[in-house]
């Protein structure tokens, strides 16, 4: 976009990244307006809420850059569209990613429309990191070499609100020494299943299903699809090495994702993000997981898997 005379509304959070974004835009000659979004009401908070302090910082950034400052409240929208979703996801036993939901609903919907309709902006800007060039592209493929053996034999019953545990995390178990790692949760019983090492095969899976995928450019890229299958790369965690995968495209827009090598701690509620040659194609929320490497090694299917063995029950640490 040519800079001269173009108006850009920059979401200024009070942090460094959006301040730098606003500065760079201004230096390039855009007419920049800073907008702080208030997404949380201190009255909903028992402790101290930093929103007011952030707003003051955002105001100071705009003063320093000598650009107009606006504040807009999305407290109601954030509660209804982001926070309520977060609670619902936890109730379903998933580990939600509210930042992605906030981007979708608040920043790239409400803020975008506010900027265009109320501020007359030609474009919006944020301090998000995104590589916009595919030059010097490298796709990293790390070898998954370590497959330690070990017994998947402990489980414990968690009272009050198991949502504190997420797959892959280290769990403290009262009465048991050593490190234990969460490998699965059963929301219907409140059980958390643990393994005795951080890279236990029970933590590794190579199959997952998402909800309807949001494709960035087109749905899905036609040149990549062969008989309802598509080869691309997968990542579900920031800075995780890209893993080659095959997508099976379902009628309802969801996909099954088969990874060429198992990934650690795949977690329902997190987002599977798909790439081709470094370009981000789209993403979908992880809803279901296939059997773990450990389960497959044991030659059992999921229903007859290790959960039904006589596992020890121990109390969680409080
Ligand atoms: N309350 C807010 N008001 C306005 N913009 C916001 C707000 N929160 C986030 N943003 C925008 O979203 C971008 C990403 O926010 P996030 O908190 O994920 O990242 P960040 O790297 O900490 O950014 P920053 O250093 O600018 O705070 C910010 O750079 C900013 O442009």
TrEMBL record:
One GO cellular component term noted in the UniProt record for this chain: mitochondrion
Domain of life: Eukaryota
Listed Gene3D superfamilies: HUPs (3.40.50.620), Translation factors (2.40.30.10)
Bias (Basic and acidic residues): 301-318
MF terms in GO: ATP binding; tRNA binding; tRNA-5-taurinomethyluridine 2-sulfurtransferase
Main location: mitochondrion
Residues covered by the tRNA-specific 2-thiouridylase MnmA-like C-terminal domain: 206-286
GO aspect biological process, one term: tRNA wobble position uridine thiolation
Keyword tRNA processing: yes
Alphabetized UniProt keyword annotations: ATP-binding, Disulfide bond, Nucleotide-binding, RNA-binding, Transferase, tRNA processing, tRNA-binding
One Pfam family matching this protein: tRNA_Me_trans_M
Known catalytic reactions: 5-taurinomethyluridine(34) in tRNA + S-sulfanyl-L-cysteinyl-[protein] + AH2 + ATP = 5-taurinomethyl-2-thiouridine(34) in tRNA + L-cysteinyl-[protein] + A + AMP + diphosphate + H(+)
Listed SUPFAM superfamilies: Adenine nucleotide alpha hydrolases-like
InterPro entries the UniProt entry points to: MnmA-like, MnmA-like_C, MnmA-like_central, Rossmann-like_a/b/a_fold
Residue ranges constituting the tRNA-specific 2-thiouridylase MnmA-like central domain according to the UniProt record: 162-195
Region (Disordered): 297-318
UniProt enzyme class: transferase
Protein family according to the UniProt entry: Belongs to the MnmA/TRMU family.
UniProt function note: Catalyzes the 2-thiolation of uridine at the wobble position (U34) of mitochondrial tRNA(Lys), tRNA(Glu) and tRNA(Gln). Required for the formation of 5-taurinomethyl-2-thiouridine (tm5s2U) of mitochondrial tRNA(Lys), tRNA(Glu), and tRNA(Gln) at the wobble position. ATP is required to activate the C2 atom of the wobble base.
Protein name: Mitochondrial tRNA-specific 2-thiouridylase 1
Species, as recorded: Callipepla squamata (Scaled quail)
